[in-house]
Amino acid sequence: MPALRDRLTREDGLVIACYCAAWCDTCRQYRPDFDGLAQKWPQHTFVWIDIEENPDLLDDEDVENFPTILVQSRAGNLFFGSMLPYISHLEKLVPGLEAADPIEGGPGQLSGLLEDL
Question: pLDDT by residue (tens digit) across 7-45?
Fold first, then answer.
């Protein structure tokens, strides 16, 4: 986890987290594309979070559908919600968020939540 903490506290790039569950077939099918997008955009930090193994990384939020995506900047959350499991939707969303203002709601900063573990 120290390497992940270091990545989450970088000054540049976004944190893009996918909340999932090991038993979810949709998540298993989505993950290779999510990992592929991480390779395509190394300036951002991509995190795959199993909500049953790491429920604390959801803070006080609930996940109703998979995949649920969290996009954060150092300033705060830019997006938190479920998406259809097509990587093209995330691929279109992220560039528009790179200069966006933070939104209300969603989990706290993942770097801070990791420190509490």
Answer: 666 667 899 999 999 999 999 999 999 999 999 999 999
Find the radius of gyration of the CA atoms of the chain.
Answer: 13
Reported in sequence order, the residue ranges of the chain that DSSP labels E, i.e. its strands, are: 15-20, 45-50, 68-73, 76-82
Q: Are 82 and 52 in contact (CB under 8 A)?
A: no
Short-list 57, 76, 38, CA closest to 30: 38
Distance between CA atoms of 69 and 1, rounded to whole angstroms?
20
Q: What is the largest CA-CA distance in the chain?
A: 35
Number of neighbouring beta carbons within 10 Å of residue 59: 15
Rounded to two decimals, what is the model's pTM? Answer: 0.89
Number of domains in the chain: 1
Residue-range definition of the domain harbouring residue 34: 2-115
